[in-house]
């Protein structure tokens, strides 16, 4: 009896070259599975792959697939969070914020100054940075904000901390 696999039971031969990930030139999970199947197909019948080796390679494949799925999920979550950030920052429209600006003095030394302005608009630029338009027509990165003041209400307008003049 010959130690060969009959053609009807053999896996089809691989006709195309291994595909690589176009982004970084590395092999993907499908390529890993194809290599494993080719290795199993072409192993020597006199010295087959041991169960431990096969289980180890299948565990590696499973880990690779899980890492790929996790990377995809994290990328999706980061994109959703970035879109949500624009909506959150839109709540600043009409509020007074304190923000920091780095300026050079007459000697060329950089100093940080605090500015106070009202936010009139919010946008997300091409790099994903949230930018705020101040009432002085200056765009500011959201990272420059250090304080957000509550919207003014009637108690602040009276100047008496909400007490009327008859109650004093």
TrEMBL record:
Keywords: Bacterial flagellum biogenesis, Cell projection, Cilium, Flagellum. The keyword DNA damage does not apply. Transmembrane segments: none annotated. Residues 1-17, 158-168 have a biased composition (Polar residues). InterPro entries: FlgD. Belongs to the FlgD family. This is Flagellar hook assembly protein FlgD.
């Amino acid at each position: 009896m010959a130690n060969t696999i009959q053609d009807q039971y053999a896996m089809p031969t691989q006709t195309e070259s291994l595909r690589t990930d176009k982004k970084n030139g590395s092999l993907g999970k499908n390529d890993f599975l194809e290599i494993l199947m080719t290795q199993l197909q072409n192993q020597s019948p006199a010295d087959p792959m041991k169960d431990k080796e096969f289980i180890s390679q299948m565990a590696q494949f499973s880990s690779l697939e899980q890492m790929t799925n996790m990377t995809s999920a994290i990328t999706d979550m980061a994109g959703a969070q970035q879109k949500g950030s624009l909506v959150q920052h839109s709540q600043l429209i009409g509020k007074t914020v304190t923000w920091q600006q780095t300026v050079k003095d007459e000697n060329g030394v950089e100093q940080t100054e605090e500015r106070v302005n009202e936010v009139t608009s919010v946008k997300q630029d091409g790099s994903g940075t949230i930018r705020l338009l101040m009432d002085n027509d200056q765009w500011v990165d959201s990272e420059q904000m250090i304080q957000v003041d509550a919207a003014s209400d009637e108690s602040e307008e009276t100047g008496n901390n909400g007490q009327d003049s008859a109650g004093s």
